[in-house]
Amino acid sequence: MDLLSDIEKQLKQTSAQGFLIALSGGLDSTVLLSLFAKLRQKQPHLPPLSVRAIHIHHGLSPNADSWAQHCQDLCDQFQIPLIIERVQVDKTNGIEAGAREARYQVIKKHLQTQEVLVTAHHLNDQTETFFLALKRGSGLQGLGAMQQQSVLFGMPILRPLLGFTRSQLEGYAQKENLNWTTDESNEDNRYDRNFLRNKILPELRERWAHFDLAVQRSTQHCFEQQQLINDLLNEAFAEHCKIKNQFKLLQFRQYSPAKQTALLRMWLAENQLEMPSKRQLTQLINDVVLAREDANPQFQLVNKVIRRYQDCLYLTKRFSDLTKCCLKLKQSTLSLPDDLGNITVQENEHNLIFYWQDYSVTLEKTNLPISIRFGYSGKIKHHPKRPREDIKRIWQELSVPPWERNRIPLIFYGNKLKSAVGFFRVFDVS
């Protein structure tokens, strides 16, 4: 099938008003950029096709600067606006995972309303993704691999080249005299995807010429079966997941293991997380869901943490330890660590009013130094008619999860705790 006509048909089936092309400068994305440039020229009588491109400079290769310049030259040639963004890659969970996370997070910042991200994944990529999911022991959700249209990290994504092989893209590039960059790390077989691409899959394709098409059919079967399971479980899922990042465990322990894992996969998919292996799901159920009642267990999944509190699972980010943090308040605005926003202070004749997020607290003026801290242990008097109580009990009474307690700014006058902004004040004991 002709690449240009096929993509044109796909675009007519989308409601997107603009397209942001993920451009690495390699063969696949260069072909994609060329095709969109041709489509824009082909439709002069229609509203002009809104096309932009974005290149992510990961800083992982000595050639990264030249790749960025190549992408700029390409976009200048096709008269397509280009965004170039540099990112820092967190290598904690491996370079591949860290680069992917950094790439999509920065792209999300640039994606406009009614715009769709367009990636150059092709049929060979689909086969690799299927085998990587198989290696992880993924269920149907993971084995469904990539779909032509989907949502990832909360972004709508279009993969218009998914039905074409790399050799077809090479044929188009040669015919159009396109130039592209080559990432030297593609030859490094320490990376799982490269090992499959360079060592394993060539032999399978040599023996079975239509192997990639067969894998694509299998991924589609898996995807459709997962969709059927989701349809059958939708009513139960709605009872457990009324808030996107929370999963209520009421009645959950009475389900069969198969139903438990299926519902948890639906929850993780709802939050655009990669599917864990069967072993990981079993560990999540045993170590978190079935942990003793008074425990505060947690389970790390890539860059997220699943925690349990009061018979509910919570999906959170990984948080920094702020318990030793002490910030001196010297101006009207103080920036807080770990994405907690700002504390601002307004002054009137007798009081200071502290604002944080949607909360505020009014305290008397003081000549003592004011500081913001996180985390406190001991007894305090938080109500004028009640005795001093352990702060842990107060947090429990307010239904504040344990991991949030050390993220709420505490106002100190000198060395005395005066307030947890938005939650309670501390009264002096007379």
From TrEMBL:
The keyword Cytoplasm applies. Its EC number is 6.3.4.19. GO terms for cellular component: cytoplasm. It is found in: Cytoplasm. ATP binds at residues 24-29. It is an enzyme of class 6 (ligase). Its main location: cytoplasm. Gene3D superfamilies: 1.20.59.20, HUPs. GO terms for biological process: tRNA modification. Keywords: ATP-binding, Cytoplasm, Ligase, Nucleotide-binding, tRNA processing. Belongs to the tRNA(Ile)-lysidine synthase family. The N-terminal region contains the highly conserved SGGXDS motif, predicted to be a P-loop motif involved in ATP binding. This is tRNA(Ile)-lysidine synthase. It comes from Haemophilus haemolyticus. The lineage of its organism: Bacteria, Pseudomonadati, Pseudomonadota, Gammaproteobacteria, Pasteurellales.
